[in-house]
Each structure stands twice: as C-alpha cells, then as structure tokens.
From TrEMBL:
It comes from the Bacteria. SUPFAM superfamilies: SP0830-like. InterPro entries: DUF1697. This is DUF1697 domain-containing protein.
C-alpha cells in the first residue's frame, strides 16, 4: 500500500545556518525510495509518497540520512496526509484563514506533557493564546500581533513541551495539505 506523507524539518536554512538546499532534499528523499517528492518554501517542508510505514521510523530514517549528507543533526517530524488533515480540521480557533500568518501549528514528536503548559497563566499573555490538541501531538497558537512579538511563543518550546517540535503558520499548513491532495 502507498501512503502520502509530509516531512517537516526543524531549524534548517535559518539565518544562513544548517543549509539544506531543497533540490538536495528532494534528491535525498528520492534516494530513500520515496516517490513524487515535492518541497514547499526553503524551511524544510516536503510531500511524498512511499510504502506504508510508521511515520516516526520514517522521520528517524530521514534524519539519519540528512545528518550523513550534511554533517549536522536535523529533527524531522513526519505525518501522513490523513494525520495532517486531522490536525488541520482540529484547529480550535475560529477562522484561521482570515489571517493565516497569525495562526500556527506546532507539530510534536510525541504527546506534550500538559503539566508545564497548565502552569502558564493565559491572561498574562493575552491576546496571544494556545490550545493543545487532544492526543497532545499538535499545539495550536493564535498570535494577533505576530509571532515575533509574542511573549507567549518562547514559552511553547520543545523543552517545556517535553518533545521535539517544529512550528508552521496556517498558510504553510494549508498549502502542504493541498499538496497532499494533488
């Protein structure tokens, strides 16, 4: 059986560090036996198909191949197209499409530890807000004044969440979802 996947690479091509050209990422994924590889933006988003397998195992294999090729570790999250669709449909905020750059989804490698999140006083960071998805593998954010100006967003990092994490804005999430449906 063939499955469509999305790979989300964390922390590449930011500020000239950890450079991974998208053409080389496509070539690397193809070399792993993945088909129809397409990338979105320079921040490490790829859509491809391959034999049905565990997304966490696939993420680990991609991470190893990236480190072998480029000489530095890269955290990779992999979701099936169905998982990405479910994450998009579960967004708890009304109408994120109205201003998609102000809404984010943080994809986690494992369910988040809710206890440290419960210690955050939401009123101290208003109008910014977050919601942890049922199952804890996605964290949704709303940042009306922008993610870069948020005092809340630095608190929602992988150390507090207890899992590796990578964040995408709503524009990127919906574009990736559309790519999985092409």
């Amino acid at each position: 059986m063939t499955t469509t996947y999305v790979a989300l690479l964390r922390g590449i091509n930011v500020g000239g560090n950890k450079k991974v050209p998208m053409a080389e990422l496509r070539e690397l994924l193809g070399g792993l036996g993945l088909d129809g590889v397409r990338t979105l933006l320079q921040s490490g988003n790829a859509v491809f198909t391959g034999a049905d397998r565990d997304p966490a195992e696939l993420a680990a294999a991609i991470g190893r191949a990236l480190e072998d090729r480029f000489g530095f570790p890269v955290t990779v999250m992999v979701r099936t197209a169905a998982e990405l669709r479910a994450a998009a449909e579960a967004n708890p905020f009304p109408d994120p499409a109205s201003d998609p750059a102000k809404y984010t989804v943080t994809f986690l490698s494992a369910p988040a530890d809710p206890e440290p999140l419960d210690a955050i006083d939401p009123s101290s960071y208003a109008p910014d807000e977050y919601r942890l998805a049922a199952g804890g593998r996605e964290l949704y954010g709303r940042f009306p004044n922008g993610l870069g100006r948020s005092r809340l967003s630095p608190l929602l990092d992988r150390r507090r969440l207890g899992a590796e994490a990578t964040t995408r804005n709503w524009n990127t999430v919906t574009k990736l979802l559309a790519m999985t449906e092409d």
